[in-house]
Write a structure and sequence with these properties.
With 197 residues, the chain is an alpha+beta fold. The protein contains ten helices and eight strands. InterPro entries: AbiEi_N.
């Protein structure tokens, strides 16, 4: 099997996407990727991220590859958890201060920055609709984030997310209240939970 065939096999197993890093780890020369790209056998989704031209690109995964310190945040995290019924028109990512990030991306992106000790709370991994693992905040942290006064989510989104959470079997109310205290939204979280539970 030649290196092109190996790439095609990798694409078939990995949702039609390959990174330069992944190719390198299986012994494929970056030159082969560039060559396939220049011949239209691959498309470039982001720097170092290639997709099968027949595959619908995964913007969320591409953002994660190009902005590895970013954590999907607020409405974008709600979308990844299936807690809101619309795809966000702008993706939201959170970064640690004083992280200097490059915004060379075509995707609509809103960037937040936070003190490292707050940025690190509740980071987890979740699959995108395209089947790729990305970093997002856990559900409990996300519910606190959408209630914070600075750049608060809209009322309909908040209501939908709280209702969705109230009906989940795997909710962690203890964790939710601990986060609510840290992010100073305890009163609002308590009010929602008393009404919904």
């Amino acid at each position: 099997m030649n290196q092109q065939d190996e790439i095609i096999e990798y694409l078939n197993k990995n949702g039609g996407q390959i990174t330069s890093k992944a190719a390198n780890s299986i012994g494929i020369s970056p030159r082969v990727l560039r060559n396939m790209y220049s011949h239209g056998q691959l498309e470039k989704l982001a720097p170092g991220v290639y997709i099968d031209p027949l595959e619908f690109g995964d913007d969320i995964a591409a953002l994660q590859y190009s902005l590895s310190k970013g954590i999907f945040f607020k409405d974008t995290a709600l979308f990844l958890y299936g807690m809101i019924d619309r795809t966000p028109s702008t993706y939201e990512m959170n970064f640690p201060l004083p992280y200097a990030y490059s915004t060379k991306t075509d995707a609509p992106l809103k960037i937040y920055r936070q003190k490292k000790e707050l940025y690190e709370i509740g980071i987890t991994s979740i699959k995108t609709p395209g089947g790729h693992l990305v970093k997002a905040y856990d559900i409990e942290r996300t519910l606190c984030d959408i209630l914070r006064t600075r750049d608060r989510s809209d009322a309909e989104t908040i209501k939908q997310a709280m209702n969705s959470y109230a009906h989940q079997k795997k909710k962690n109310l203890h964790q939710l209240m601990a986060y609510a205290k840290i992010f100073k939204v305890e009163k609002e979280i308590r009010t929602y939970m008393e009404v919904l539970l």
